[in-house]
Amino acid sequence: MLDIQNLTVAYSSRTILQDISLSVAPGEILAVIGPNGAGKSTLVRAVSGVLPTQRGKITIGGRPLHSLSAQDRARCLAVVPQARQLPAMFSVYETILLGRTPYLGWLGQSSPQDHDQVHWALERTHLTHLASRKVGELSGGEQQRILLARALAQAAPVLLLDEPTTHLDLQHQSSLLNLLRELAAEKNLAVLIVLHDLNLAGLYADRVALLVDGRIRAIGLPGEVFTSRNLTTVFNVPIEVIPHPAYGTPLVLPDGVARWRSTDSFPSKSS
After folding, report:
1. Are the C-beta atoms of 76 and 61 separated by less than 8 Å?
2. Cβ-proximal residues to 99 (8 Å cutoff; 6+ apart), any chain
3. Left if phi > 0, otherwise alpha if psi is -120 to 50, otherwise beta: which for 20?
4. This prediction's pTM
5. What is the model's pLDDT at position 168?
6. pLDDT per position as a tens digit, 24-53
7. Which residues, listed in sequence order, are joined to residue 246 by a DSSP beta bridge?
8. CA distances from 82 to 56, 62, 106, 211 (A)
9. Torsion sign, CA atoms 230, 22, 39, 162
């Protein structure tokens, strides 16, 4: 389990996160949502150990994060960052193999097990056909999938993702999030994912945390957090929440769109 208690993070004298407490159980996907500037990416960076914390405690499987060596931390926690910083001249295979760095011997030699894990990550992210291509030749969406594959190659029990669907089209958004659902169940992963798209969060997350101005405004099942009152207040636009016609999950719509759907009378092109 990933457990965060009373986490506070500040830059200079400005507090970015204040008393954040949440946990992610094995097999669970927790989506963090909120407006721009709420502190979502800061949360991922603090939990991954990139940013120092002013107060609070982060534990993975009961082990305090600050007590882990860099190698042990990388074996416990894998990150798919928002910004792509990939070696352009490396092949896709070589880049994903970097995810096995925490397991290499002191001579830095990769084992058959390492290569098996890379092949598995390539297959699960549908990148096998690109394994020999140079990373710099690929699209932003393909590079985003490489980041995910590299994280999967780490075989860590906790997975952090910061807006991983940003550069993906609809097909690959669905593919990635379905894969996360499968892996959370198959590998018993604790997954914390930052998402901008509220409807994707409602469809794929077990629970959601609504982060506003560095504090958690609400946390719970999507149907509990995604209410018209919560979202209208936070995003400063009238929002209606209706049941998804196919899945029954919360479907978030601007108020006007919800009215058009209920009457089946969309504005004509001439209006």
Report:
1. yes
2. 78, 117, 118, 121, 149, 150, 151, 152, 153, 154
3. beta
4. 0.89
5. 83
6. 999 999 999 999 989 999 999 999 988 888
7. none
8. 24, 27, 31, 18
9. negative
